[in-house]
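Give me a protein, keeping tokens residue-aligned:
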Amino acid sequence: MNTKTFFSALSLTLVVAFLPACAHKKKQQYAGIDGDYVAGTPLSERSESANFMGANVNRSEYTPVYFAFDNNSVSPDQESKVLHVAEGIRSSGKTVILAGFTDDRGTEEYNRALGERRALAVREALIAKGVSASKIQTVSFGKEMPADSGENDAAWAKNRRVEFGIVK
């Protein structure tokens, strides 16, 4: 075997050896209306969250938790809502999807991240009230799907929220 053939065979062997390792890397996607990204987990592994808008999710059972501008802390005046949801989830054993939303001020990326932080804050509050972490999923829609399309403080306040979707 000559040197050129040897190095060609060696190169081909190395490419074939490392190709499978590259195939297993997953591209992280951002949350969107289609639910591509759900709390760090690809849609293929968290299918219920993709259906937040679907017929198998009841979005009207609980009142949303609202947030102050540029804030992701559950305020004391919203705690009773979280407690009510926690009691319902514990007694029914159903799964809840927490969807974080923002008003339309700020970049899309910032609002997606803020919506996720809001959903995660409500998740932690539910866990603190005895809900199993395995019964909670999160998704961020950012400024998509506003509750009120107005361009004033009252409208923006309605859009800074976490909605609850109960998986039927």
